[in-house]
Amino acid sequence: MRHIIWDWNGTLFDDLHIVVESVNASLAELGAPPIDADGYRDHYTRPVHLFYERLLGRGLDDAEWKQIDLTFHDTYRLALPRADLALDAIDALETVAVRGWTQSILSMWWHSELVPFVEERRLDRFMQRVDGNRNDAGETKQTHLERHLDALGISDLGAAAFLVVGDALDDARAAIAAGVPCALYDSGSHHRAEFETAGVPVVQSLREALDA
Predict the structure, then answer these.
(1) Pick from 147, 142, 150, 194: which is nearest to 170 by CA?
(2) Which pTM value belongs to this model?
(3) pLDDT higher than threshold 80 for residue 1
(4) What whole-number distance in Å separates Cα of residue 90 and Cα of residue 154?
(5) DSSP string of 127-182?
(6) I want to staple 68 with a disulfide (CB 3.0 to 4.6 A). Which of 26, 83, 140, 209 is the partner?
(7) Residue from 133, 190, 193, 139 nearest 166 by CA
(8) Over the stretch 134-159, which tens digit does the pLDDT of each residue have?
(9) What three-state secondary structure class fits 83?
(10) SS3 breakdown of the chain: % helix, strand, coil, rounded to 5?
């Protein structure tokens, strides 16, 4: 292993509480009841519009989806000051650097917002690349990961040189599809029992993921 690919939301950045808050703001506009963290874990999936369809028990038209996406991100941006890095994020990043490995961030958050946010916290000093979503809210993590791996040189290094560390089943599915090892960080986005069906190591800390 030579390179760690970190997921951002829910992995390096501990934001589940403001994500749930932002989902509830979107649900309120549709007249739907709020959820708690367990409700989020019960229904979460990607693409995100499927997650909302699960919550609502029905399909969404284009106008509803656009409004959901707008409300979620507006609420999330306002709530950002109330979220912070995972407790051992800096320790994990420094450990990777000390071991002489490289690392990068791959997130579904908008690239134009992710990059300055990472730079403000001086995390860019650790990173070979920082890639957010440059396309649309419906893009899959698998497509995003494959593009990231190509940019990092998977054809030269080989899949075994990488480790994806994420907090969602979507991260594991994307890594498995790309033939890349993965460790799932149990930070609360899914029920533990779901993680244990993914076929990859499940860890309780970011530091532990490096030795999984």
Answers:
(1) 142
(2) 0.92
(3) no
(4) 26
(5) -SEEEEE-S-TT--HHHHHHHHHHHHTHHHH-GGGEEEEESSHHHHHHHHHHT--E
(6) 26
(7) 190
(8) 876 567 889 999 999 999 998 888 99
(9) coil
(10) 55, 15, 30
